[in-house]
Amino acid sequence: xxxxEKYKFKSETKQLLHLMIHSLYSNKEIFIRELISNASDAIDxxxxxxxxxxxxxxxxxxxCIRIKIxxxxxxxIISDNGIGMTKDEIIQNLGMIANSGTKKFIQNIKNINHQxxxxxxxxxVGFYSSFIVSKKVIVITKHMDLKNEDYGIKWTxxxxxxxxxxxxTKKEHGTDIELYLKDTEIEFLEDWKIKxxxxxxxxxxxxxxxxxxxxxxxxxxxxxQINQGQALxxxxxxxxxxxxxxxxxxxxTQDKNKPLTWIHSTVEGTHEYTCLxxxxxxxxxxxxxxENKNNGLKLYVKKIYIMDDANQFLPNYLRFIKGILDxxxxxxxxxxxILQDDKNTNILKKSLTKRILTLIKKISTEEPEKYxxxxxxxxxxxxxxxxxxxxxxxxxxxxxxxxxxNHNSPEQTLSLNEYINNMNKQQEKIYFITAENYEAxxxxxxxxxxxxxxxxxxxxxxxxxxxxxxxxxxFKNKKFQSINKVDxxxxxxxxxxxxxxxxxxxxxxxxxxxxxxxxxxxISVRFxxxxxxxxxxxxxxxxxxxxxxxxxxxxxxxxxxxxxxxxEINPTHPxxxxxxxxxxxxxxxxxxxxxxxxxxxxxxxxxxxxxxxxKNINQxxxx
Length: 623
Fold this sequence. Notes:
Number of domains: 4
Helix content: 25-40%
Radius of gyration: 33 Å
Largest sheet: 9 strands, mixed
CATH superfamily of the largest domain: Histidine kinase-like ATPase, C-terminal domain
Strand order of the largest sheet: 1-6-5-4-7-3-2-8-9
Distance between the termini: 97 Å
CATH architecture of the largest domain: 2-Layer Sandwich
Number of helices: 21
Structural class: alpha+beta
Shape: elongated
Strand content: 15-25%
CATH class of the largest domain: Alpha Beta
Number of strands: 22
């Protein structure tokens, strides 16, 4: 029943093939890594399928990946006896791109350095790297479910706009990939070249990788294993070199950068597991995206590969962690749905989380320069953990880094422990302010009394900070206090360090005018003890939403109820003294409204009606 059909590649696939052939040539040898990785996955999937169906007695005794070099035809054949593919699967896998991440990859390709394409495996398109070195690729495959049939599928393409599919005779299940090399790529026909590439990228793979060798003396062909053939994480740590850990990291992440650090441990007892976990050196778009579910660990059960991106074993704020988990306490047929509710999953999650936080804490205390890198890349994710992981909140809070008014730099290097150790003797709370950016926070009028009396204030200017501080209420029994909200303890502090304000009848009359004119916008008006150089500020109720958070909600289209403030004015400021002397009703009304808008602008960074504010300013300038 031989049939031949011609198909056209989908548009994204054609774009990708064009890139592979014409652009991604800086590291050609990655095609070996990608095809070996695919072959290993095919064998793992077959082994998992058979074991989960309790038909392990039918497992092939010689599961392996084989590489054959044919110098006469300029051809390399990479074969596996794995699960194979059906006709529908080969069309789905090789004729189109199902992975949406690949489309992003193509869309952003112009912004990426062509020297950095070592990571293409991240996008599920590793097979197409074959066309970097090949003028024609043939894939011959047969699915394991068709073991009683004598036919397989042959896929052929020259990497242009189309491919051909034929039904052919094939006895054994598995996949053979035949690469007809371009004349410029014959270096890959040398045994030593292939061996070096395997040892560089694929030495850790537990499936034996064999290469065919010819014995000139005896005129015989034989197969020789060229990889170590043992899962790296199952080896003794003392036998593994750092270079091997790094190469393994490259192979499972396709990251071109060295990992920042890693942890390799085996836990025995009630819940046995082995983990090899890495902290990357650089963040990526997929890690930053909270909704991306393709972050997680490679899961093995009793050394059998189960799934990629098992994100059930780490909290979301640790989604930047990469690596593998091999456990003995899950069923082989475990699914993502089962993992979600399995008690063993929760136990493993708690244990892994504790180990990672311990590692990060160790880096923060023993390797400060390395921790600066970690914080710069993943600090915003650790901030998420303050709300997500209440059980470990104190530990996570100790890992946070800030800048402050005493710090005098936007770089976040100040820990909460350091802040507490340097607190003013009169101080009982940890003071902070949130703003849109560092400059806005560092020049805020709310800081004046603190700066003048050498009381440090944390400056928070990232989008997540307001949300984080809603959950982070104490650290080492010290309460956090926003300096732009009402706080009796702060008032006491101001009373200790400020001169008493004398309220004359003239000043009281001025306060009454302000209260009358702004009654719809303010709770009350009073002379301020916190201001040194600014004429006025707005103080929110202790439970009011912060101005920064209010703006974020409004940007998201959510309605925010009107916030009324306590209006504090500085009686020593020349502007206020001038205003107290103004008697004309129309003129003082404009001055008071302008003063309030000025304070509101300083607090919010924007006004509901900026044109009205400008009109008043112009009127005052004209007068």
